[in-house]
Amino acid sequence: MHGRRRAVDQAVSRAVPEIAAGELRSARNLPACSGQSPDASLPAAEAMESKDTWGAWSGVYRQGGCIPFAFPGLPEIGCVFGTALCGSIHLSASGDGDAVTRREALLAAIGLARWVELCQVHKDGFIVDARPTPTELPSALEADGSCTRERGLGLLVKTADCQPLFFAAGDGSAVAALHVGWRGNAADYPAVGLSRFCEAYGLDPAGVLAVRGPSLGPGASEFVNFGKEWLAAFAPWFDAEKQTMDLWRLTRDQLMRVGMPAGNIFSLDLCTCSLPGLFFSHRRGDEGRQGSLVWIRPAGEPASAGRGRAQGVAGPHYDPMCVNVPAGRGKA
Q1: In angstroms, how far apart are the furthest CA atoms of the chain?
Q2: In Å, what is the CA distance from 279 to each residue of 98, 289, 300?
Q3: Is residue 64 very low, low, confident or very high in pLDDT (cuts 50, 70, 90)?
Q4: Per-residue DSSP letters for 83-135?
Q5: Under CATH, which number does the domain 2-325 receive?
Q6: 39-43, 52-56, 96-100, 163-167 — which is least confidently predicted?
Q7: Fewer beta carbons within 10 angstroms: which end of the chain, N or C?
């Protein structure tokens, strides 16, 4: 156990200059090798002094390579969206020591010790009050969504173009996490997941907040076989000329159809396929997966808890630009 803990600490320590290099490289849209830490464009110290110019990416640096999101009016809810700067957290059936270390480092960087991981199968399974799963083993829980009211328990979603979709009860008492691929959209999974979350805890969809994280954007979601892969009812979200689907708008509309107000739906409109080096993308041929989490903070823990803790960052923490953008207003 102590050996593993040291390995995690060393991994996080090594990640500090690598994340600083990666955030600058990605912010400038310079090419970077997906799945690996890019070479430094500037030394780490200079990266930290560049807050005025690269303020948003300083937040990524502080969170161990993740992009933080703050649900409006819910400081008790924690939420981060992973990037390729964390390294891939995908764990094969045969096991991967480096991936295990990265997974534990991700938890340490945001101040958590436990998570619920699912074996995502692109269906409509949903687990209520799932129990914690080990970080060192692949999950055997086949489902694409889960919810909890337990404090300090992260709900993990692994993606590489699919949408990480998180819900929070308006009173901060419960959270849910969905993995939504295009097949999930085709099966109305955003609406199904929201309904099951509300049924589990007696919630009104009108009082639930949602955020959709970085994923395949409208310009990159090409479907040349639309007629075979989608029902005709999905034609309003399909651009026949460009042969692309607006999955972002589709998810928003599916949530609204079952009672979630448009003003409660937020998004980080960053296209994973269009930002190599910052995100893994299945469409680009990447094998890696980024991990995103939502959780309820332990009682008494401030909203900034965990930020920079694992990296040993001293002094006041720089607050990143949390991208609280209502869905549909931003562009990839």
Answers
A1: 58
A2: 19, 8, 33
A3: low
A4: -GGG------TT--HHHHHHHHHHHHHTT-SEEE--B--SS---EESPPPB-S
A5: 3.60.140.10
A6: 39-43
A7: N
